[in-house]
Amino acid sequence: MPKWLDEMTNAGEPVIPENLKNTVWERDEGQCVQCGATEDVGIYCIEPYGMPTESNTKLLCKPCKRNL
Fold first, then answer.
1. Among residues 55, 21, 4, 41, which one has the least CA distance to residue 64?
2. Could you say which of 1, 9, 41, 42 is the most buried, measured as most Cβ atoms within 10 Å of its Cβ?
3. At 53, is the secondary structure helix, strand, or coil?
4. What mean pLDDT do residues 11-40 have?
5. What dihedral do alpha carbons 12, 10, 29, 38 form, nearest 10°?
6. 47-58: average pLDDT
7. Quick one: pLDDT band at residue 36, thresholds 50, 70, 90?
8. Residue 60's pLDDT band (boundaries 50, 70, 90)?
9. DSSP states of 5-46 as a string?
10. pTM for this entry
């Protein structure tokens, strides 16, 4: 595992910086990009073990996250 990945992960999930979370929240208008839910949503990296970048993160509700 690359050192940068080891330092940025927590149980396999990348740590997403707060400024990126704010950017993605605004971009996705505070709702799940799959179903439009506004409750129980979070920002997740789409590509497993990928860098947490704006293009690799989406706002998803937990049911839609499970279906990725």
1. 41
2. 41
3. coil
4. 91
5. 90
6. 88
7. very high
8. very high
9. HHHHEETTEEPPPHHHHHHHHHHTTTS-TTT---SSEEEEES
10. 0.76
List the structure tokens of 24: 């993605």
Question: Hey, what amino acid is at 43?
Answer: I
- Which token pair is 25? 């929240």
* Residue 58 CA neighbour count, 13 Å, CB half: 14
Tokens encoding 63: 């049911």
Which residue in this structure is represented by tokens 């080891």?
A: 6
66 contact partners, CB below 8 Å, separation of at least 6: none
